[in-house]
Amino acid sequence: METRCGYVAIIGRPNSGKSTLFNRLVGQKISSTSYKPQTTRHRIVGVKTGSNVQFIFVDTPGIHLGGKRLLNRVLNKNALNVLHDVHLIFWVIDRGQWTQEEEHIKKALNNIDCPVILVVNKIDKLERRDDLLVILKHLSIKFSFAEIVPISALKQDNIADLIETGKRYLPESEFFYPEEYLTDRDRAFIASETIREAAFMYLEKELPYSTHVEIEKYEDQAERVHISAIIWVEKNGQKAILIGRKGEMLKKIGSRARSEIQKQIESKVHLELWVKLKKDWQDNPQIVGNYES
Ligand code: GDP
Ligand code: MG
């Protein structure tokens, strides 16, 4: 069977519905911007696998999924470089609202040679079906869109059509990721990276690169996600630095990591953090195994 696979950026002005669409497409509340696998040039924020297609959604710094900073950063060339590397762009717009911000995005897209599908969102808010035809006509002359697809991300209307349409613009290729990508295991992995990042934010010089975070427990509870994690260090001195005076450093790291993870998974998080000393953990296959994903 022929399969297609490629990188997709979701862009658009704040409040147009990017996060809602993203969550509908990926089917999980992950919109992490801190997951930075060393092996790819992209920050992958979610993967949607259909029966013969795989969309890999990537973060676009400055125009990212939670982006409130779109306007001032959209013309920043560096921030836009990622758009040169994707196979497809979903540009989300709120019905027919073509504002100055849309004009900014349009300018930024001028040098980008990649199909752009205009996703006309929030059609559930239209009072009359006829309004849609008028809007689509009005938008079609704004830019050389490859396609225009009306949807309601909120009501899940026409999402399947967007997937079918988008698929035609992805290259024929095998899947890059396993079908079950972004399972709990991956969520745990992202959480561990976030904790590690928080530790390095405060202790960049004091900690060795090999400092490793293991997620002992990642559990969805009624009102929150419970995460229990161990920061493994190799030396007693590192342990003391991580914990800090009266545990203050660990508290700071934990609080920073917790708030980041909460943003990523859009859920309350209870985070338990431990520091443990492990000689030669790098030789321990069990722990190293956790890290390969
Ligand atoms: P973002 O800033 O582009 O990521 O936008 P969000 O996904 O956070 O959505 C902004 C607001 O629009 C939220 O209140 C959403 O619930 C709402 N919204 C998103 N999609 C739709 C839609 O299809 N219909 C309606 N009525 N509201 C939507
Ligand atoms: Mg958002």
Show the helix and strand layout.
Layout (H helix, E strand, L loop, with lengths): L3 E9 L5 H9 L17 E6 L3 E6 L11 H4 L3 H4 L7 E7 L5 H10 L6 E6 L7 H12 L6 E4 L8 H9 L16 H20 L8 E9 L3 E10 L2 H8 L4 H18 L2 E10 L7 H7 L2
Parallel strand pairs: 1-3, 1-4, 4-5, 5-6, 8-9
Antiparallel strand pairs: 2-3, 7-8
Helix pairs in contact: 7-9
The structure holds guanosine-5'-diphosphate and magnesium ion (MG).
Keywords:
single chain, 293 residues, alpha/beta, Rossmann fold, GMP Synthetase, Chain A, domain 3, 2 domains, six-stranded mixed sheet, three-stranded mixed sheet, 10 helices, disordered C terminus, binds guanosine-5'-diphosphate, binds magnesium ion
Structural class: alpha/beta
CATH homologous superfamily descriptor of the largest domain: P-loop containing nucleotide triphosphate hydrolases
The number of helical segments is: 10
User: Which spans of ≥5 residues are poorly predicted at pLDDT below 50?
Assistant: 29-41, 64-75, 287-293
How does the overall form come out from the CA principal axes?
A: elongated
Which fold name fills CATH's third level, the topology of the largest domain? Rossmann fold
Q: Span from first to last CA?
A: 26 Å
Radius of gyration: 21 Å
Mean pLDDT over the full residue set: 81
CATH class of the largest domain: Alpha Beta
Number of E-state strands: 9
Q: What is the spatial order of strands in the main beta sheet?
A: 2-3-1-4-5-6
Strand coverage percent = 15-25%
Q: What is the CATH architecture annotation of the largest domain?
A: 3-Layer(aba) Sandwich
Q: SSE order, as H and E?
A: EHEEHHEHEHEHHEEHHEH
Helix content: 25-40%
Specify the biggest β-sheet: 6 strands, mixed
Domain count: 2
Bound compounds, please?
A: guanosine-5'-diphosphate, magnesium ion
